[in-house]
């Protein structure tokens, strides 16, 4: 299980095999299979919710020499559920060959080969399927894109308009019918009452069924395929090898939109003879196919080394299509039997995929196949790192406007841009978190994150710290000892809860930005009715022009303009003191400094004047023109 668990790593380890054979089957360990939840259990019965829409009927016509043309007709009005699809598969017209007859044919074939060996004659290797090689009319129809295990070209039936009442057919199955529906093993009864799933694991029996398929391909009622249903039957409980969430290069790309039809999983409901024609994946991608339940799939694959020979053989069998479109094989509308391939010196690889098994297809590996009865599979395209140069070179069909095409470099560039945007967003978010964390240790009264002389607030306060200086100049607060604090005895900020709420909404007139001006609590100029406010820390700057001091009452009254006088006030240790906050306009020291500054500016201006120069003198009585005699 440890070797299997990592999907991407597992695919990288087997990549060299798949790039030679074109296809690989993976049988998951029992530990993985045993953990899969049942499809008909739980609150949401996933299988019952599936609706098979736009089912198709498949028409086959001979192109001669074991080559066939496939044409699909869509029936949009036929919407059925899985139980109704199983009933359709078990009908007399659509069921597969009788298993007892297939076993008899297999025994007869084996007996004939043994008899030839006893007679000393070695049978010349021929195809097991002697299909009718009479040339028929070749219908050259272009198709549309589908995924591996899916369907080729489609046409909508003229009678395929929605009809009243028929759309709700899928809701007619009763609870009793659902409970009696054995989706895992009921399909075996299509081949007879004694048939079991193990019968399809006999290689000789599968060869007999294969011969039955090719010999009767163009006869009987056309098979139907419930293909290209967007969705998944896996749940988030399945972490490993969940087709809906596979780790690969495409899912690692950061894109604005998912690559519909490529990175989205699709469901396929098959029946006997429901066929997927020869093709390689869009943009030469990898694909993975998993059968959830039901009958096996018969796969064919062409080795990558035989790819060019195969393409030439198919171009010769379908000259009209190949001349009109260079990538005509991407139409997924052409079949070639093993006998046709053998006649062109091409030996296909065979593989039978059973329920609970994965099949992986590889770039440049042509593959096709058909279903042996009622089943449900899930498929998805994916890519490894080694696919990127392959994707850059991949061609696409120009005659189909819906053909998938990728500009790999553009996708990589878009992904890189989005990754960079995400990285920057994460940095901003991380910076915001760090900033908020720092704010928790900052002063609650000012916007400066200086950690000097921080005093903790009481444990029951919303904030955590405040500067000692800011606290001392906040009228309602002071630093004191608190022996009852949960953190132990020590200095704490007292009076925090009694701060006037208006202080938090005032704006600092010294802060550089509006955001900073709104933070913290502000102090107001104490001169008369002045309404100017600032952070105590902002007022402390030398360039602010504000005055913050604690002085005696008499000195405070003079500074605040309540009293006048020029006499020096003697210090009195017993005199009460109070805090004085003066703005730049009311700070006497600032006024004195401003007067000195203006005097110096005036002196500098006067000294630049020359004797005899005309000058203007402004007085309270007006402006006078005169001549400068001397400075």
Automatic annotation (TrEMBL):
* Gene Ontology cellular-component annotations: chromatin; nucleus
What does the record give under GO molecular function?
histone H3K36 demethylase activity; histone H3K9me2/H3K9me3 demethylase activity; zinc ion binding
The answer to whether the entry has keyword Cytoplasm is no
Coiled-coil segments on the chain, per record: 408-436
Per the database record, which ranges form the PHD-type domain?
440-587
What residue spans carry the region label Disordered?
Answer: 92-171
Which residues belong to any copy of the JmjC domain? 224-399
Instruction: Give the compositionally biased regions (Basic and acidic residues).
Output: 92-119, 155-171
The UniProt record lists the EC number as 1.14.11.66
Major enzyme class: oxidoreductase
Q: Which residues form the signal peptide?
A: none
Keywords, ordered alphabetically: Coiled coil, Metal-binding, Zinc, Zinc-finger
- Catalytic activity, reaction form: N(6),N(6),N(6)-trimethyl-L-lysyl(9)-[histone H3] + 2 2-oxoglutarate + 2 O2 = N(6)-methyl-L-lysyl(9)-[histone H3] + 2 formaldehyde + 2 succinate + 2 CO2
Q: Which PANTHER family match?
A: [HISTONE H3]-TRIMETHYL-L-LYSINE(9) DEMETHYLASE, LYSINE-SPECIFIC DEMETHYLASE
Matching InterPro entries: EPHD, JmjC_dom, JmjN, Znf_RING/FYVE/PHD
Task: List the source organism.
Answer: Acaromyces ingoldii
**Protein name, as recorded:** [histone H3]-trimethyl-L-lysine(9) demethylase
Composition bias (Acidic residues) maps to 127-140
Q: Which example biological process does GO assign this protein? A: regulation of gene expression
What PROSITE patterns does the database record attribute to this sequence? EPHD, JMJC, JMJN
Family membership noted in the UniProt record: Belongs to the JHDM3 histone demethylase family.
Which residues belong to any copy of the JmjN domain? 1-35
**Record's SMART domains?**
JmjC, JmjN
């Amino acid at each position: 299980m440890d070797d299997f668990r990592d999907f991407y790593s597992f695919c990288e380890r087997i990549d060299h095999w798949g790039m030679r054979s074109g296809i690989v089957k993976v049988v998951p360990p029992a530990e993985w299979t045993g953990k899969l939840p049942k499809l008909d259990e739980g609150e949401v019965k996933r299988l019952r919710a599936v609706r098979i829409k736009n089912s198709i009927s498949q028409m086959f016509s001979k192109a001669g020499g074991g080559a066939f043309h496939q044409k699909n007709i869509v029936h949009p009005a036929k919407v059925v559920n899985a139980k109704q699809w199983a009933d359709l598969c078990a009908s007399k017209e659509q069921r597969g060959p009788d298993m007892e007859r297939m076993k008899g044919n297999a025994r007869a074939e084996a007996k004939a080969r043994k008899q030839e060996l006893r007679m000393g004659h070695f049978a010349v290797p021929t195809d097991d399927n002697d299909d009718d090689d009479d040339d028929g009319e070749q219908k050259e129809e272009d198709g549309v894109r589908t995924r591996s295990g899916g369907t080729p070209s489609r046409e909508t039936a003229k009678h395929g308009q929605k009809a009243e009442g028929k759309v709700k057919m899928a809701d007619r199955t009763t609870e009793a019918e659902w409970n009696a529906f054995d989706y895992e093993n009921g399909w075996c009864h299509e081949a007879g009452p004694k048939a079991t799933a193990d019968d399809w694991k006999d290689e000789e029996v599968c060869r007999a069924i294969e011969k039955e398929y090719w010999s009767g391909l163009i006869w009987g009622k056309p098979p139907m395929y419930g293909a290209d249903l967007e969705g998944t039957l896996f749940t988030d409980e399945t972490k490993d090898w969940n087709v809906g969430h596979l780790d690969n290069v495409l899912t690692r790309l950061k894109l604005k939109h998912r690559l519909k039809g490529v990175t989205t999983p699709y469901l396929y409901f098959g029946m006997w003879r429901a066929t997927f024609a020869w093709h390689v994946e869009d943009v030469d991608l990898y694909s993975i196919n998993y059968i959830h339940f039901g009958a096996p799939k018969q796969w064919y694959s062409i080795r990558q080394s035989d790819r060019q020979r195969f393409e030439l053989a198919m171009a010769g069998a379908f000259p009209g299509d190949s001349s009109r479109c260079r990538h005509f094989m991407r139409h997924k509308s052409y079949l070639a039997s093993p006998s046709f391939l053998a006649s062109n010196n091409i030996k296909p690889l065979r593989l039978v995929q059973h329920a609970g098994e994965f099949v992986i297809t590889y770039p440049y590996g042509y593959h096709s196949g058909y279903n042996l009865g009622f089943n449900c599979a899930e498929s998805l395209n994916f890519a490894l790192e080694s696919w990127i140069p392959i994707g850059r070179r991949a061609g696409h069909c120009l005659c189909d406007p819906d053909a998938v095409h990728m500009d790999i470099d553009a996708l990589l560039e878009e992904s890189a841009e989005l990754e960079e945007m995400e990285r920057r967003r994460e940095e901003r978010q991380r910076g915001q978190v760090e900033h908020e964390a720092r704010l928790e240790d900052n002063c609650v009264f000012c916007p400066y994150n200086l950690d000097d002389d921080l005093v903790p607030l009481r444990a029951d306060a919303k904030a955590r710290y405040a500067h000692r200086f800011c606290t001392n100049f906040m009228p309602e607060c002071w630093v004191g000892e608190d022996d009852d604090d949960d953190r132990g005895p020590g200095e704490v900020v007292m009076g925090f809860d009694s701060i006037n709420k208006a202080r938090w909404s005032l704006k600092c007139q010294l802060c550089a930005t509006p955001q900073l001006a709104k933070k913290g609590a502000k102090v107001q100029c104490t001169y008369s009715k002045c309404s100017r406010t600032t952070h105590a820390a902002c007022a402390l700057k030398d360039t602010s022009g504000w005055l913050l001091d604690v002085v005696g009452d008499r000195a405070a009254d003079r500074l605040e303009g309540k009293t006048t006088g020029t006499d020096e006030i003697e210090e009195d240790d017993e005199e009460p003191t109070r805090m004085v906050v003066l703005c730049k306009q009311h700070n006497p020291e600032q006024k004195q400094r401003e007067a000195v500054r203006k005097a110096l500016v005036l002196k500098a201006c006067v000294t630049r004047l020359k004797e005899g120069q005309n000058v203007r003198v402004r007085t309270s009585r007006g402006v006078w023109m005169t001549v400068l005699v001397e400075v």
